[in-house]
Amino acid sequence: MLTWLSKRSQTKRKARDIYAAVVAQSRNPVFYESYGVADEPIGRYELIALHLILALTRLGQPDVGDEELRRQTLETFVTDLDDAMREFGVGDPTVPKRVKRAAGGAHIRNDSYAAAMADASDNALVLALIEYVYVNEPAPYAAALATYVRRAAAHLAALPASTLAGGVITFPSPEPNPSEHKP
After folding, report:
1. Cβ atoms within 10 A of the Cβ of 146, count?
2. pTM exceeds cut of 0.90
């Protein structure tokens, strides 16, 4: 009778595991030391959003097709945003508005990254990364990050659906010295 409750609890655990992997990958120092991503709240948010989008895209593929797991993973992200803003001392009355704006920003990025990934060349992806990750600053490593994003998407596509459905996700390591991509 309570199997639905147990299944929901398992799905939440899997979503937390997936989100933890997203955050762990986003905190990889290589992104900040070698790819020029700002090691500050905005830069960290952008990398989390980028990796979350990659993960959610893969979870939405027909072979995995677990909408509840996707939804719970996104809810875990929103809860984390709420907690982080409160830790930063954002006033309680403004937290919901800021969380809504940040979650909406992830949705906008999802659309932009999806369109950029559909383009065979890296030009659109580089421009999207400059717009969001590098906040319209000249980004000598945007091409290297675009290469990493494509590699990460391919890596995720190769993960077995059963692994993802079990709440396990991995990402490739970013190149520690992407200087060959620098203009």
Report:
1. 24
2. no
